[in-house]
Queue: 4 jobs
Job 1
Amino acid sequence: MLPLLILSLLAVYIFIDRYLQIQKAKKIDPEFMQNVKDYVIGGNVQGALTLCQNTDSPVARMIEKGVRRIGKPLPTIEAAIENIGKLELLQLEKRLPALATIAGVAPMIGFLGTVTGMIRAFYQLSASGGDVDPKMLSIGIYEALVTTAAGLAVGIIAYVGYNFLVSQVEKVIFKMEASSVDFLDLLQEPAK
């Protein structure tokens, strides 16, 4: 049960940490891209750069990289934005594989408890020399059932948490992609 307790605490910590980071990444001023466009169209690249630097979000860091590359060939700008996007995605997904591992390992540890509980029950039965006392069997069966239930509970909660976080990361990725496409479209517009 101790390994299951440790895994459950670790799963809760990872979930809360990632949830807070993902929520922070999702928050971006709806006017951010419009302000960047206004600065770039107005020729104030430094203003766009300052806006990006003062905005703490993955989208802002991607656009900042693109703003820094203004004047270079479009494929170079696109590649730079894509590289920053990949780094930001790595930060968002940090520790998610550990949560997925907990979701898979916790039930296995529970099943291991089931096996050890049944071994204990049958050992008690064999050591009794034919004098079967239901209490002997009930202790082993109790251990088996409790560890199984605990392992499944930790695994289910970790699995649901993992899938929820993955869906939240996908929403951030969508915002990042939409913003980068929006910025690249801006660079392709003819000068007015």
Job 2
Amino acid sequence: MKTIFISAIIFLMGVNLLIAQTTPPKGPAADKAIKAYSEGKLDELAAALPALSKAFPDHPYTVFFKAFVADRKDNNVQEALRGYSEVIKAAPDLMEPYFFRAIIFNEKGMYEKTIEDMTNAIKNDDQKQSNLYTLRGEIYGKAEKNENAFADFKQAIAMSPSIVKNYRGLMNTALEINKKDAAITIIKNAVESTEAENAGVWKVWADMNLRTKQFSVSDKAFDKSISLSAAHPNTTEQPDADTYNSAAIAALNTNNFSKAKQLAEKAISLAPKNHLFYCNRSEISIQDKTWEEVYTWAQKALQVNEKSARANLLMAIGVKRTNRGDALSAEYEKKSKQLQEDGVQD
């Protein structure tokens, strides 16, 4: 969690600290420490602490910076918790101590305390940053409070409509609490308006329709997402193996076997050590009864993972349908059943 959030928000947190109600200390030592924190320069902040501590030993900013360095530089969790808690007691209007204490609580699996601190962070966030709602939404999801998670992801989308992870969080929680229609409306409105050129949101729209078995809509949405990614190669939302595999499933369910095969093979090219993608490619060929392909791709899956129950069963089908011998087919089928009995499904 630290690596995910620290680089993205440290600058914003520093700026927010400067405009909180609690008055910051004044003078060269304070200016140097505040500047280092605001710019995310942890080593410089640590170096500035002795002078700040001498000038303002009990100031909330000093205590917070000490806790922050203990947390992010020294990995001294207990010292960080003590410091953050001390700042919260002395200066409850500062957002950052709540936020960073919440991250520690989250890492410890203490979700109720995490949610409480995130709620206070949001309350004291003068800049109204959507990523705080995103994080609280994710924590609500971990705590299985999906109604709350859904509300937070919805709020985050309203505040920052271009951030893809909010749509994905909205989709996942909506499907858990039977709010798929509400999620569909929000995501559809996005791709039809402000996010029409956002490859990541189109991918979420494709996934949503795949999971709700609207295969034709999903197929077209995957096409749009992939084409947008190709047109903007520097975007972070480049399609991965899972994207192509999901797109292949959508194409398969529209009976476009040729397209499904091409997409599945693209997934394999991106993740050649994942036997499941070979299995999926083999299964596509079952649908149009190209049995030699079933055999070929099942064989490749077994070369990657010979203990895959699914690959052994596909091999049994491929061997039988290509007339390579009923006895050999039965051997693969027997091995598949044994692996399933042993708890090996894939």
Job 3
Amino acid sequence: MSSADGLPRNQERRSMRKNSPMTDAGDFIDLALQRESSWTRAEEAEARHGSDHGYYGASVGAVRGTVRDALRRHPELTHDDITALSSELWEIPVFERRLAAVVLLQSSVRMLTNTDLTRIEGFVRSAQLTALVDPLAIDVVGPLIAGLDVLGRVRADSVLDRWVRDPDGWLRRAALLCPLRELRAGAGDWSRFVRHARSVLPEPRPTMPDDDGGIDAEAVSLVLTDMARHRPELVF
């Protein structure tokens, strides 16, 4: 299976690694994911997610296990190390590397603060893929905000207010999905979600060449469907 420029994928990988120096932890994760690669899975993933990313063909379970092993090998990683490593993994647009960055942040979410939302915003904008944006929103941004103190949460809420008004539909989707875990658990600010949801459900817009395909409205539907199962007393 070749890349868009005709290079064999293994040659492309070597080229990418040569031009991107890695930390020990980043190198460990990347090599482990390549060892778990499968051309069949890579082809299936590309057919499912599109060609905007490269694919090693490692399974989701392998990605999670690799990140877990990396954190065990490097228990000394600080907040700054974790966030820098996430950016290092994200820098090269290979799906499994970026998913590893999401899992890394999810695994270290208690270390994160509201200032990390800027980095995560960049990830969301460049992901353009539900398989990356949704876990970033639900499993990273949501728990991050839930763990903040009052002042931190006020600041984070102002960031989400900006996200939900942003022209980027992926950022609006992330803002809408991030309270899902809290809401499902019987907490969360339902009225705030309703306000955000209504703000992205205006009159139908003319379809534009760069239309986001209603990914924000789809996020509203996902939350409402989940709440119908877990908290049917909530009214939209």
Job 4
Amino acid sequence: MANTPDAACTVAVVIPCYNAAPYLARALDSVFAQTYLDFHIYLIDDGSTDDIEAALLPYIGRITWSRHPHAGQAAARNRGILVSNSRYIAFLDADDEWLPDKLKRQIEVLQNLPQTAMAYSDCLTSGSGPSDGSYFARTGIPAGGNIFDRLARTCDIHTPTVMVRRECLNDVGLFNESLPVGEDYNLWLRIASRWDVAVVPEALAIRHVTIGSLSLTTARDRALTAVIAAFEDVARTCPGLSRHQRDALRKGLAKRCYAYGSHLLLIGSREPARAQFLRAIHDGGRDWRTFAKLGLTFVPSPMFNLLDKVRKRLVHVA
């Protein structure tokens, strides 16, 4: 293990790494190419089994890094936050990269808006799939400020675009290490429940969907249940939510229960699906599709199987 003393700097760059040695140089070089230079990198090896030491050899003496037993990216990020002492913290995943003005633009924003907890930006996704290119180009540029309601509906924050004040994390806490995925969404919700959030309209990071990345290897069932748990955690740990915020959170939870119920119905788990649709209705998910799918959970098995065969045939034809 190589290590370097903590540096008195304005920004701590926290990079969790798990079996991402082939991509590390791209990520680290993108940080060292920043036009804003008052930063220090904290790379946390989350129990990698690849040759991370060889990948880090060119960067010895320029970064702080440590190795720990595999505990997940939330734990790795938390270790990076706790070992650093900078006023601002920026996150980068080991297989992603930043564009050169990333730190400069966000430092400008946060220094001009002292009541704002964090700043995030547009993100480019590499590749040739439906999600490639600029995220904001597909969804529109969101407004900043009090974003809790919008965030409860949909998460438009990509973690490699985030910079946050340390005092904000001291206020709301760190990443929830019990969540296998969705721990970043959970933290953004907790932050937005108490603080304003700024949006930088231009793309400042590039997200690479690589083989072995968490987004590709996490089973849909696990991802859906983790997001529900993330919402439940916000409701449990944020007692100061206003009535309006609790209503927004409840509707957001209903949306996720509907998604999970739809998944369960698709794989034939009708009784568990029924429970999710009932929960969605209870929490305000009163869309006709929720009632229609709830009705399908009561259809006798022979009829349900016949309907499912028809659905699959129509999907195949389309």
